[in-house]
Amino acid sequence: MSESTRPLAGSYRSPMAPPRSFLWSRRIFLTLLTGFVLVPVYVMVSSSLKPLADVSGTFRWLPSGLTIRPYIDIWSTVPLARYFVNSLVVAGAATVCSVVIAVFSAYAVSRYDFRGKRVFTVTVLSTQMFPGILFLLPLFLIYVNIGNATGIALFGSRGGLILTYLTFSLPFSIWMLIGYFDSVPRDLDEAALVDGCGPLGALFRVVVPAAVPGIVAVAVYAFMTAWGEVLFASVMTNDTTRTLAVGLQGYSTLNDVYWNQIMAASLVVSVPVVAGFLLLQRYLVAGLTAGAVK
Amino acid sequence: MTTTVPTEAAVRPSSPGTASGPRRRPGRIRRIGLPYLLLLPALLLELLVHLVPMVIGMVMSFKELTQFYIRDWTTAPWNGVDNYKISVDFDAPVGEALLHSFLVTVAFTLLSVALCWCIGTAAALYMQDAFRGRGLLRALFLVPYALPVYTAVITWVFMFQHDNGLVNHVLHDQLGITDKPTFWLIGDNSFFALLTVSVWKGWPFAFLIVMAGLQNIPKELYEAASLDGAGMWQQIRRITLPSLRPVNQVLVLVLFLWTFNDFNTPYVLFGKTAPEAADLISVHIYQASFVTWNFGTGSAMSVLLLLFLLVVTGVYLVITSRGRRTADV
Amino acid sequence: MRTTRAAAVAAVTMSLALAATACGGGSSTDGGGSNDSPKTLTYWASNQGASIEVDKKVLQPELDKFEKETGIEVKLEVVPWSDLLNRILTATTSGQGPDVLNIGNTWSASLQATGALLPWDKAQFDKIGGKDRFVDSALGSTGAEGKDPAAVPLYSMAYALYYNKKAFADAGIAEPPATWDELVADGKKLTGGGKWALGVEGSNPSENIHHAVVFAKQHGADFFTADGKADFTSDKAVAGVKQFVDLMAKDKVVAPGNAEYAQNQSVSDFAKGKTAMLLWQSASANLKSQGMSEDDYGIAPVPVQSGAPGTGTGVNSMVMGINMAVFKNTDNIDGATKFVKFMTSDAEQKILNQAYSSIPPVKGAQADAAFNTPANAVLKDTLAKSAVAAPQVADESQFETAVGTAIKGLFADAAAGRKVTEDSVKAALEKAQQQMPAK
Question: What is the mean pLDDT of residues A196-205?
Answer without folding.
Answer: 82
